[in-house]
Amino acid sequence: MGFSFLTEKTRKEITAKGSSGMEVILASLESTRDLQTILNILCILNELVSVGGGRRVGVLVSKGGTAILLQLLITTSKEWPPSEELMLQLHTILAKVGPKDRKFGIKARINGALNITVSLLKQNLQNHKLLLPCLQVLRVYSANSVNAVSLGKNGVVELLFKIIGPYSKKNTSILKVTLDTLAALLKSKANARRAVDRTYVPTLLAVYQDWHRNDTRHRHVHIRKAILGCIRNITNIKLGRKAFLEADGMRILYSTSTECLSVRTLDPLINTSSLIMRKCFPKNRLPVPTIRSVFHYQLPHIPAEGPVAQLYRQPPDVDDVVDESDDNDDTEADTENDTENEEDEKNHKTQNDDIETDISKLRPKENLTRPLEDLKMYECFFPELSENFQGYSFDSSKSCQTPAVLPKSLAPIVVPTAHAPSPLSLAQGELTDLPLDLDSICISKDGPGGAGGAGEGLAQELERVALEEDTLNGQSQSPVVGSLQGELEHDDDCSSHSSGELGVLEVPDTAALLPLHDPELYIDMVKGTKSVPQYTEVAYPDYFGHVAPTFREHILERVYGVQRAKIFQDIERMIHPNDILDKVVYDLDLKRSPVIDDGESLKFNSQFESGNLRKAVQVRKFEYDLILNSDINSNHYHQWFYFEVSGMRVGSSYRFNIINCEKVNSQFNYGMQVLMYSVQEAISGHPRWVRTGTEICYYKNHFSRSSIAAGGQKGKSYYTMTFTVTFQYRDDVCYFAYHYPYTYSTLKMHLQKLEALRTPQIYLRQDVLCETLGGNSCPLLTITAMPQSSSNDQICQFKNRPYVFLTARVHPGETNASWVMKGTLEFLMSPSPMAQSLRESYVFKIVPMLNPDGVINGNHRCSLSGEDLNRQWQRPSPDLHPTIFHTKGLLQYLSSIQRVPLVYCDYHGHSRKKNVFMYGCSIKETLWQTNVNAAACDLQEDLSYRTLPKILSQLAPAFSMASCSFVVEKSKESTARVVVWREIGVQKSYTMESTLCGCDQGKYKGLQIGTRELEEMGAQFCIALLRLKRLSSPLEFRNSSHFLDVENDLIESRCKVTSSTTYVLDEDEPSFMEEVDYSAESNDEPEPDPDPQETPADEDGLSDSELALRRS
Length: 1112
Ligand SMILES: [Zn+2]
Known about the structure:
The strands form four sheets. This protein has a seven-stranded mixed sheet with strand order 14-15-17-16-18-20-19, sandwiched between helices. The protein has a six-stranded mixed sheet with strand order 3-5-6-8-12-11, with helices on one face. Strands 4-7-13-9-10 form a five-stranded antiparallel sheet. The chain is built from 45 helices and 20 strands. It is α+β, with helices and mostly antiparallel strands. Helix 6 (84-97) packs parallel to helix 9 (128-142) and helix 33 (815-828) crosses helix 40. Bound molecules: zinc ion. Zinc ion (ZN) binds next to loops. It is an enzyme of class 3 (hydrolase). It comes from Scleropages formosus. Residues 318-365, 1067-1112 are annotated as: Disordered. Its EC number is 3.4.17.24. Its main location: cytoplasm.
């Protein structure tokens, strides 16, 4: 083409909008039969599209150019031998048109163009001039999955391997296109199988090594990456992974990657290599005998349907840890399309099918499910509605006088239930048949005398203190605080933390620091707490208490390459198996935990209230794999952890890996740290949990997850949460937790201490709502202001205060909810005028812990029934879900006497989002999301459900209005929020979610959340209620209308949709810094059938229906 037919001006005219130039050229191309004319026109076209980028090609495509060019290819190739110049011109232009035409692949196949290009290739393997455009066109053909299968059948894979050669500086563009085409073809499982059969896997690995060795100046990273692309696609099939392992692929990719680590521009190679290695890493079995909880609790009866029934239906000898089906090549081949992380969430976002579209399910449900006479039993929880306060002295100068109506705190008022047998008789074992017997729970472990030297070491001191207290209290025995025995190596000079006086422990003065904490009282409370494992130990942090640190704890910045480094360390386990210790140091599945006392290993313990750690395996000298225990009567749900570590060496970095995490993503990838409590710190005056850990990340690992626990999905893996800690003190006892622990015994202690805050102005009642399955009491609080006198007016005002109903901690792992609740309770009991004004405005009914059993036993989500209690509100069972049944009963009772609460709020914690926010319920906002019920938008709805969150967003620094959602999801129809809204008729019915991580807006932006902020949130919630009250009072309304620009708000929200599961996730979570290596696989979309049928779904790579398939 040495000579140009067109000036640039002409080119522009031809392709300009509205110009018919292109049509004219195409028309002449179609009509002419003269070879020279055709060549001339093709030259013009090639020139036209070679400048100006994609737009001109777009014009060519839009004018039907593809079909005309492909037709030309067919007709001219029938003349034998085809003109080389013509074929060159045609393929050059098709190579440009192809990528711009979505239907190119299918058009070419229908026209029969595939074979023409292939045979042209076969005859011109040495003709590089023609080879290149032909390969480029072939690459476009191969992008279509049906074409790929058909090209493979015609020997194209083998053909391409003839072109791939050793390192050479020549013809690199040809090699690159060849590799890209090959990679596209290898996405087909049939082609991948073919490649394995022809032993191409070792070939590719050898080629990769060759390029790695010779491309020392990294000029051809794209070629090296393309080779890896081929390997990656072959290893999507099981045979491919096998061939890869047999060809020593792990070691090859591991060593080449290690050599690339220092050069940042080689990251794509390392990332792809790591992806392949992780995929090929043989799936390991989780080292536990069963994935069911270690602890067993016999339920009074098992509901016919649901997860527990499923669990119990399994034959006892079934191995639920691994799937047998995993070994089945055929089924496996089609199920291996993991979607994860962003992808999962993105799919969710587009699919959006969780939104309730059935308007009848959004409308109030009027009929009470329980008869009125049945609800009468709740009357006793509302004495404030009938009390007349006659004979009560209202002289506030008298010291705190408890009104006669108030029962003794925590007196066990057990609500009789219809069919429930006495909870005590339900418990298994002999000990629990009796009322808790102190002697029986106070079995200490080996006892101080049983080990080591006398009286040395922190643990010894602590134990002695426990005993001392016993003497003081005149008790024979008491639960053992901590568990360390005297086996720690000890150096007398190191006891600086005990002021040199051996045996005298400086217990932190938590009473001064923490008015609501009392270690002795805590021990007393523990004695009344019934756990399934019958714990006899108390964790130091719960005993000493936690004083929030004054320093700021920033959200951890993720260091580049951390995840990759961790994954490489994991891969080394396979490459250097001899370096792996594999030493079990803690195991609840064994009757007796292994005694490790060689000074080489850490010691673990989790056998205390809220503790969760099932097993610890020392992998390397300073690295441990940890396994969490499933919720009781369940085979999954674990995320919460709380355990003790001792026997550490100072200054060494320990890596901990929790290897059976379930969620696809975690805030641990976005700056959240674990919490650590050091007993040495505590006794030196800083009893506190601090955020700790470096090199934290969360990623998919090589432990396979049984489909039994993965909702039937096969081929799933667990995730690893890894963190690294360097211990500061020798002879320390440290605790790690997912979030600030808050045990049931802590709650009981706080509730007792609240009594002390009572003033004559405060009406405080503590009742026991019911007993839990595990035989623990579920406290119910009533807080309001005492009437100022027994005058009719005052009593009338007292009795007519609207109710505010609050609940928390239905999910045991969400300890932050308890800290928020603590803030609320303390505010409500405070002497401040604002608190008094609030008490005068409302009656607060509070169930601060809806799931005591789950909390006590270290569950993450469920109660002893193995079910998520926040999915039982529609039909709670009095036997299996007593706390929900009776809390709902209280609300139903209020509804039956026309005293529906003004506000209901259930406190939760959120593991994947930042800030504090609310979910509410709105028919309109729900229907707006769906477009199905456009007509329903005419319905009238009171917009005041937005007021409280709006006020909170102005008051509370951690609160974010942008994260709130008022959409009702189908999956949430049996949650407290939705049921209280629909069935009880509370318009302002909310879930308040507090982050486990931190804030990305407001005053606390960039900081991790602590107990101080959580408690503040609880107090701000109260202040918001006061403001809500003032807004609804007409006198003040005029001045404060700025609070309530509700309509404007609503209009904004129509544009910016926010919903719990569907929309906000990606806003909240920034994309990964190391995007590539996070996803184990991104290219394994389903293949068409081996014998592909021509269906529209198969067109052009990934169709919508295929995407839908991947989603499902
Ligand atoms: Zn929750």
